Each structure stands twice: as C-alpha cells, then as structure tokens.
Request: fold
Amino acid sequence: MWPLVILSYFSSQGWESWDVKYRPVIPEGMPFLIDDDLLLEDGPAAPRQVSVVNGWLRLLPASGAPAPSSWENYARAVKEWAEFLAEHGVGLFDSRDRLKAGLSRYAEHRAAGPVRARFAASTWGQHMSILSLFYRWAIEEGHAAAEPFTYRSARAIFAGTGRDVRVNLAVRRTPKPHVTIKYLEPDFTDLFRKGLRGLAPDGNRDTGFAGREMTRNAAIGDLALATGLRLGEFTHLLPWEIPALPPAPTAIPIPFPVAAGITKGRKFRTTWISYDALAGLHDYLQLDRAAVADGSAWRPPRRWGEPLHVSSPDARGGRINGIRRSWESLTPPERRRLVAPDGGSCLLAVKADGGPFTAWATVFERTADRIRARFEPRFPHVHPHRLRHCFSMQTLEYLVTGYYRQAAKLVRDTDADAALIFYLTKADPLLVLRDLLGHSTVLTTEKYLKRLDTTRIYRQAYETEGAAAGLVDGTAAQREAGAELDDDVDEEL
Reply:
C-alpha cells in the first residue's frame, strides 16, 4: 500500500557532511518522492516504490526532458496516479487487469469527479503521456511486468515521409483546434506599445496615468514583440547578451542569439530583432538602467543562495566569484543571483533599487486593463506569451510577402519551372520561422500556425505580389469565382 507521499526537491548544499566521498550526481532542484516515514527502502536490496520512481526521475535530463521546469510535472503525474491507485487497493506495479481497471476509474475521476480533481483534455493527455513513458521505462528495467495502456498502430506522414507510431487509446479525443491562439492586430499592437510608454492613443502623454519605469517597460515590451522570446527568456537576459547596435539604421532584421541556459529545452537558437527595438534597449541600458543600477547596494536574498559576483564581463561571459564562466551555462536561478561589478542586479530589467525586475505578466496585464478602461473597451487581455504570437504573425507576414515576391519575379523573368520549384523548396518561410521560434520541427510550427489566423497573410501576399508582377488578374479571378457559384445554383435547380 502506498502511504502519504511527500514531494521534495534535491539540493547538494552541505554534501560534505553527508559521509560521502563525492558530490552526488543528482541534478540540483530535481524533485523526489519520499514516504511519510522518511524511508526509501524496507531493508537492503528492498527499495520501495518511491525509490523506483526517483530512479526514473533522475534520468529525465538525459531522456528528452532536460528543462528543470518540466520535472515537477513528471513527478506529480506519477505521484497522483500512485496515490489514487493506493486508495483503491491497486499497486503501482500490479497486474495488467488491475492496472487497467484502475485506469478506467481514474479517467472517470479526472473527467467527472470532484471539481478540484478534474482535468482538461490537454492536461489528461499530458499525464497519460508521462505515465506511458514511466511504465515503458519500468518494464524495460524489470520493475514492472505490465502497464495499464492499450495502443493502436498508426502511420504518421510528414513531408512525404511516413513512419509507424503507437497511439495511446487512453488519451481523450478532442476537436482539432482552429483559431484558438490570440494575438494583437497591428492597431492594437501600436496601442499597447503606447500604453507601455504612458501615452494615450494620439501619442500624447496620458495625463490620467502616473506610472513609473516607462522607459524600461517600453524597451522590454518592444523586445518581446520584436524577438518572439518567451517570458523566461527575455526576463533572464543579461546586458552583455544584447547585440551591438549597427552604426546606421537598417530595415534588415538583426541577429539576436538566445543562450541555451534560458531557453525551453536548453537549445541555443538565434532569433532576430528590429533596429528600432534594439536601439530602445540600448537607450534603456545606457540611461535609465545605469542611473539606478550603478552603485546599488542590492544583494540577492539569502533564500536564493550565495551572491554570485561578476567581474570582467564581456559578450561571452565573465568571472563569477573569481572563476571564468560563459553566460551560456547560467540557469535562470543563477542569473537572478548575479551581482554586477558596479553594483545591482545583472538582469536586463531592474527595479528602482537596482534589484532584478521579473513581474512582466503584471506589467502587461495592467497596461491592457488601463487601455481597456480609458480608451478602447474592446482591447484584449495581454499575457507575455501573446506577444510571442504577435511576433509569429508579424514575422510570417514579412517572410511570406518576400517569398511570394521572389517567386513571382522568377516566373515573370525566367518562366522557368525548374528555378521556381527550386526556390519554393529551399526558401520555405516555415523553415525560417521554425528556427526563430526555437521549434524542434517544422511540424510543430505548422501545428502552431494552424491555431493562428494565417489565411489572411497568404491571401494578401499572393494577391498583392502576383498583381504587382502582372501574374494575377483580379477581375478574371472574380469572374471565375462567380461562375463556380452559378454552377452550384444550376445543380440545385
């Protein structure tokens, strides 16, 4: 029987006093489970079920889940499943029949049980995927003889290549999402940018608003809109990671590297940024930020760990407590503890006392609330990830317009099908957007874009650039479309 289980998190602090020869290889912050009697085994070579789960959790960083932010989800999924089974007298590694019966009851509990226990279809699917991974590992390692899931074979096709996959039948079928991701239309984006600056829609100062740190908020808001960075990414940037400003304004996007230590999945990537957004960042760094950070006495609170003092910083890294380290290697918790050579936090955005500022969800939501209350009742709620959606739409429009323009030029100038085919296969906007957003595959980007209203972008680019090249006859197209409707009427009659 599985007793009350405690979820805790590993720290190697003070390991020298543990009577062990070497520092443990368990990752810092790794969640682990322990029974309420604080025992992990019943005797020599008799590990408890929590020990088996902990063994699986420790392997997550090398098994497709390197991000510490995801580890707790894995631990909680197994913990809650095992506790539910125990309530009904079923063991975590019981027979297949008993596990399947437990899964059936668990599905009903999560779908129609007490309100606080219910899962949305997406959450249920995530939990089933986690449990499937756990049981496959447990069977391979000899801890389990059976799993509760039934699978069917399917054929997945992508880019003309097929592969056999297993589909977990426990996952709930859900309607395919359509336009469910919200972004800001260009006029609302402009309104939001003005709001961050404390301006009214006409561009004049909003006299009814007495906000602070407008330069900082505007610079970071423009950064998020211009790069597509996630909240955790732009929050934990360091000043030395900001690209240099080109000597002259340019319409060409400027490469913007994103360190692996702060990205989802710890994968380095390069996105881009506009000249104006980058110039705003440099203005903030040189003026407002320097005024509050230089000479600041701020130090990280003790609960965060020891301060990490930076010296000799450059674009690649710096000396941290006397040891040279790259910015690439620093995690978000470590970055929050950095103290700059001249005082204050090393994070890009700082508070009035020079400490790190991280409450961007609050800033964006309050700005949206103010716009909605004072100027535009239709203005939507704005969370940090919505700015990433705005970047995706803006970038796709930029890429698709150039894509169609070049394709039309090839048709007009060469009339060479081979040249056109080569261009269409080698210059796909989705490939560029995939890299900018940091997606693993184009398939991820395609699924993401299906939930955005992208039809308008492709239609406008096709019509505009085709007409400019003399390849699209709008009048003829209208006549053809009308004839299709006439055919429908004839058939009905």
